[in-house]
Amino acid sequence: MWYDNLNEKRMWEIFEEISRVPRESGNEEGIRNFLLSWAEKNGFRADRDGIGNVFIYADATEGYENVPPLALQGHMDMVCVKRDGSSHDFTKDPIEIEYDGKFIKAKDTTLGADNGIAIAMTLALISDPESQHGPIEGIFTISEETGLTGAFNIDPEKVKAKRMINLDSEEEGIIYIGCAGGVDLDSKITFKREENPYSNGYKIEVAGLLGGHSGGEIDKERGNAIKILARALKNIGKFSLAEISGGTKRNVIPSYAYAVISTDSRIEKKIAKVEKQVQNELKNADPGIRITITPVENPQYIIPGKKKKKIIDALFTAPHGVKTMSTTIKGIVETSNNLAIVSTQEDSLCVVNSIRSNIASSKENHLDTLKTLYSSFGFKNTESDGYPEWEPDPASPFLKEVDKLYKEIMGRKAKVTAIHAGLECGIINKRIKGMDSISIGPDLFDVHSVNEHIIAESAERVYDFLKEMVRRLG
Fold first, then answer.
1. 3-state secondary structure of 233
2. Could you say which of 8, 24, 114, 144 is catalytic?
3. Nearest Cα to 437, choosing from 411, 459, 419?
4. Beta-sheet strands, E only, within 345-405
5. Is 286 tagged catalytic?
6. Which of 103, 147, 244, 278 is the most buried (most CB within 10 A)?
7. pLDDT tens readout for residues 39-69
């Protein structure tokens, strides 16, 4: 197997097993059954709540019966993105894992280490005969990636622990004690299609971008395929628009977008000019960008000209990326927006924006700004319920104990900070009275994209720290 030369074979074997199970958000029945079956086979008590979260309970090992229970938490689902041209079917095909001696990644798809590594670490730890610990409760939530559904609906009666380690972070050596809140905005414009006055159909595609997590990578100034496509369309002169589509998930920076248009003009040079400009602008942050034009069957019906202009102008004008940086925690994004998805139906077009902020009022203000913008172009807006910020508590006794143990075990001090991405800790803390949480994890890169990869040695160090920490926790 690919993990034969790695040290923590128990953890990687479980990770491999998880990777064979379909677990896209909303399709978690397979991974839920895997967890329940694994618990039964290995002699652990397990349960599920009404929403579908799974709980696996490990009794204290000898001598640790009086240690307060500890929860280890991660989510079951993963973001499923595949490379252009891949035939991978996330409803049935296993993730094909590759290891190059340093990085673990997947062939042509997201890896799912976000958050499969949390499951693997937890199951490996509680099933390790050499592990010593107090009572451990494994908490595995559903649909974190598409709305934190499991966390919002977790049954408090299933959890006795008042201390929780979330294993959904992506930087080794950091203890997170806070995160951004978020809200999504769906903006829809309707139209009645009309006859196409032009003769030649084309498909314009923006591809080759890195994409990535809209929280963790939003500050890397990567390109947004939807924004680049709108810019290209803005510069090609007279044309009609039949379809525009881009983006895959609300929390993924769009790496691909396309438009089906019709025109009697020559547009190749104009598109090439925009491509050259964008390639120069993104040469360091996102060097793979390309814009291509392919002749296609000429569309018979198109979006009316006035509505077409409003759509393109809205996409061209809408902000994407970092809005403000935190003045409280240096180097942390405070407020951002991901122009995430555009999709065209027969009589309508919808745009999805995902707003994050560590400050509730800033989140609401940016939401209102976007609602005003889209309304001005004739869109009707619908906002999601959103999820709350996780407010940092630097005085937490649990944090102080973990921070102290990290220095003792690892020989260096951890960085204690907050993250711009959303985590389930704040929600679970509110749902389970008295819960105190921190979040840690290994070095994980380019999550929510086909370039997702994890450093094997980092994952093993975090696991070894976790195993030693639970041995020492009072």
1. helix
2. 144
3. 419
4. 348-357, 380-383
5. no
6. 244
7. 999 999 999 999 999 999 999 999 999 999 9
